[in-house]
Amino acid sequence: MTPPPCLWMLAFLTFINCIIFVAADDDEIYASLLIAAGCFWCGEQAFEQYVPGVLEAVSGYAGGSNESPTYSNHGTYGHYEVVEITYDTTKATYKAMVEYAWRNIDPTDGNGQFCDRGSSYRPAIFYADERERTIAEEVRDDILQEYSWTEEDVVGVALLERPIFWKAEEYHQDYYIKKPNNYGFYKNACGRKKRLIEVWGQDSYDCRHSLESACFLTVFNEEGVEVTAEVNAKGTPPEKVGLLPDFAINVLIVVAVVVGLAVGFFLFRKRSRHQQNKEKKEKKLEAFNDDGTLRHSSDTNKNSTKDSGNEP
Prior knowledge:
This protein has helices at about 5-30, 40-50, 95-100, 130-145, 175-180, 180-190, 190-200, 200-210, 245-285, 295-305; strands at about 30-35, 55-60, 80-90, 110-115, 115, 125, 160, 165, 220, 225-230. By secondary structure, it is α+β, with helices and mostly antiparallel strands.
């Protein structure tokens, strides 16, 4: 017996509702936050590689007066360089994200971060609602108490309502993956690691900047459940120190090739001249007899004929 059309329609609508419910449920476990930690390359790399539960970090601009800012004009219009961080709420919390953000900045510097100066490099923690604002303030107060600081000591860190996020140019996304030598050289030359260790201590830095760190074996999620910590969702290799940027390496390669060719040419010319001098010397010796007397030209020609194997 064939089911009536209404049953088919009911079954179809039930199926569609299940799909929508599952999709909505998946969306609900993901959350994002916005932080400013100086250069967005470094913020992106730190969160993506080392923070449990982070799925993606995107470089961008926020807080300025114009729409669709670019790298060339974002500072002019008052934008921060920011990172939008997407994380899994079943594996992490907003509080944990903010705690990590603090320890990846110099809170005493409100005029930039590390070697990068200017308003666009100021540090800031952004909140999306009153719940996040309360958590951000609690994290700040906990840090003040732990390090015996006052609010004046960390005046450089602003707690601000979350503005519109504008994604930066594709060139800036995943820069630490695309250009590991350039990124490593910049981070090292900028003194970021050195200053973070000075502010927070060696143990704190090692704990929060290593793929082998034992500091995050387990973490709590937004439900208060302790779960296994999962870091480096993209599976990227450890960051490089970057003693030289790519352009410097390329220059050294070109210089090495040029020097190699020059040395090779010099040795070739030297060998050719040596061979020419040897031949000239042999010809001079042929012009004399064994007793040192000068041979007649006819004798020399005769000897030359004998040497060539054409004697009559």
